[in-house]
Amino acid sequence: MILPEHCSVKVDGVECPYPPSFIVSVTTGENSYMISVVCLEHRDKVQKRIAMMQQKREIPAGAIEFQPIQIIGTNCIAGSSEDYVEVELKRGIESDRPI
Ligand SMILES: [Zn+2]
After folding, report:
1. Could you tell me if residue 86 is inside a domain?
2. How far is the CA of 23 from the centre of ligand 1 (A)?
3. Structural domain contains residue 3
4. Does the pTM of the predicted model rise above 0.85?
5. Ligand 1 mean position to 98 CA, how many Å?
6. Which residues surround ligand 1, an ion (CB under 5 A)?
7. Is residue 99 part of a domain?
């Protein structure tokens, strides 16, 4: 999946320069719709805006979800063990690396 490099919020017509921190999606039953990406700062604004758009039926009604974006996934690591430790620390969880 290719993500935009910037938060998709515009402030006074100017695009927010921050990298996105969350994928915003709406889940209705079994379907999930990715709406946009947003930085930490604009999370609340986007949530309110989506709620408004749902009331106007511009986007499907459903649960608004903010999924944290992980730039590095465990499936994509091809580096040395040094890289692996660093990722472990960033993620703050134990890895399932075979020994
Ligand atoms: Zn933003």
Report:
1. yes
2. 12
3. no
4. no
5. 39
6. 7, 9, 16, 18, 39, 42
7. no
